[in-house]
Amino acid sequence: ANGLLAYAVTLVTYLSLWWFGIFNPAIVYDHLGEIYSALVFGSLVFCLCLYIKGHVAPSSSDSGSSGNAFIDFYWGMELYPRIGKHFDIKVFTNCRFGMMSWAVLAVTYCIKQYEMNGRVADSMLVNTALMLIYITKFFWWESGYWCTMDIAHDRAGFYICWGCLVWVPSTYTSPGMYLVNHPVNLGPQLAISILLAGILCIYINYDCDRQRQEFRRTNGKASVWGKAPSKIVASYQTTKGETKTSLLLTSGWWGFSRHFHYVPEILAAFFWTVPALFNHFMPYFYVIHLTILLLDRAKRDDDRCSTKYGKYWKMYCNRVPYRVVPGIY
């Protein structure tokens, strides 16, 4: 779990190369077409290699074929593919490459606007600051990310790996890409308001995950908002026929909805997009995509948990009736 250090080294190195005149990050922006083309096709070949590896040399017993070549390629065959003993492919694609390229490109767009205009608009500063705060939060919490669907349940295929190698750096950074050539002057009051609202959403998103992680770490004994947590003790059977138990948290943030942490995540994305105001649809493609992605992920997770926990999941849904947005959905 050295993501935070690797992230810091990456950004400090990148900015130092620019500051001392060794490398101009604006070149990255000028060649985005070539870079994205290389990522699109290079990552496609990479996913084909993952598909072949899953058939020929799986890294662990957590692998297998569905019997459909297209599904195996798209969803993946291995849960934890590795190169050698220590190089985890999903941690590299999702965390090291996907998230760090997001940060590097956010900084790149800021520098490009400065070179073009001799200044950085407050809209770009708010956008870049919120993205970097969110990504810093991600690496601070990286070990918790390893317990999410991306790592613990989604196999390494086109969906997750191509998405992190191509879709994240190209689409997730698109609000900043738009602002390079369309700077907006928000004024101090509006800029600070958007910044603070975005930081609050990022904090709530972090606190949701921290609350559940602490609840699990203490086996349900950690207090939630100063009170004993409300929970359901759910038993389930493993594929080997063993009976195990899990604790389902039903208070705190997790009493509002079963996937409440997606609400502040979507709102945070909105707040680092809204500095572009509403002159064009393009900056909002990412937040719309993220909303669809997370609603779909919430449904997939509910379906998986319903199969896993059975009657206990029904009890949980009765106690926490809303899937994502309290009172609505």
Automatic annotation (TrEMBL):
Keyword Zinc-finger among record annotations: no
Coiled coil: none
Membrane topology category: Multi-pass membrane protein
Source taxon at top rank: Eukaryota
GO cellular component terms listed in the entry, alphabetical order: endoplasmic reticulum membrane
Annotated compartments: Endoplasmic reticulum membrane
EC number: 1.3.1.21
Database matches in InterPro entries: ERG24_DHCR-like, Sterol_reductase_CS
Bilayer-spanning residue ranges: 6-23, 35-53, 123-141, 186-206, 266-287
GO process annotations (BP): brassinosteroid biosynthetic process; cholesterol biosynthetic process
Keywords assigned by UniProt, alphabetized: Cholesterol biosynthesis, Cholesterol metabolism, Endoplasmic reticulum, Lipid biosynthesis, Lipid metabolism, Membrane, NADP, Oxidoreductase, Steroid biosynthesis, Steroid metabolism, Sterol biosynthesis, Sterol metabolism, Transmembrane, Transmembrane helix
GO MF annotation terms: 7-dehydrocholesterol reductase activity
Main EC class the enzyme belongs to: oxidoreductase
Family: Belongs to the ERG4/ERG24 family.
PANTHER family hit by this protein: 7-DEHYDROCHOLESTEROL REDUCTASE, DELTA(14)-STEROL REDUCTASE
Name by which UniProt lists this protein: 7-dehydrocholesterol reductase
Organism: Aegilops tauschii subsp. strangulata
